[in-house]
Design brief:
single chain, about 85% helix, about 0% strand
Length: about 130
């Protein structure tokens, strides 16, 4: 497994882990701080924490991949699955008119970026496994 893949996976895992911990620990502050989130509907601490838990699991999967890629590539694939479905929901909302192209552009680095990176890493790791 390439060192670069492991480093990228580890760094993405750290970022997603921080996001997940913030969602779990200070959900209202997270809701207020992340651009565009307040436009998605009223604050729901339980919902924010649920998604924070999913992000934390993704972070742990990416961390496991960075540490032991030949063993944890399937965990990485599961994380890529969640992140890709999450990005798909954002795309679906734009196509259906519930959000704008500007919202979609705003979501590129924080929603679509992690999905694409984790998907690329998992597909390459699956080929090498």
């Amino acid at each position: 497994m390439r060192v670069w893949d492991r480093a990228v996976g580890g760094l993405l895992g750290v970022g997603l882990g921080i996001n997940g911990l913030l969602m779990l620990g200070v959900p209202f502050d997270w809701y207020e701080a992340v651009p565009g989130v307040v436009k998605t509907g009223p604050f729901n601490a339980h919902f924010v924490r649920d998604i924070g838990a999913a992000y934390l699991v993704c972070a742990l999967a990416l961390g496991a991949f960075a540490w032991r890629p030949r063993v944890a590539w399937s965990a990485l694939l599961a994380a890529a699955g969640f992140l890709s479905l999450h990005a798909g929901i954002h795309l679906f909302d734009t196509v259906c008119g519930r959000s704008s192209l500007g919202d979609l552009a705003r979501d590129l680095p924080g929603v679509f970026g992690p999905a694409l990176v984790s998907l690329a890493l998992s597909l390459r790791a699956a080929r090498e496994a």
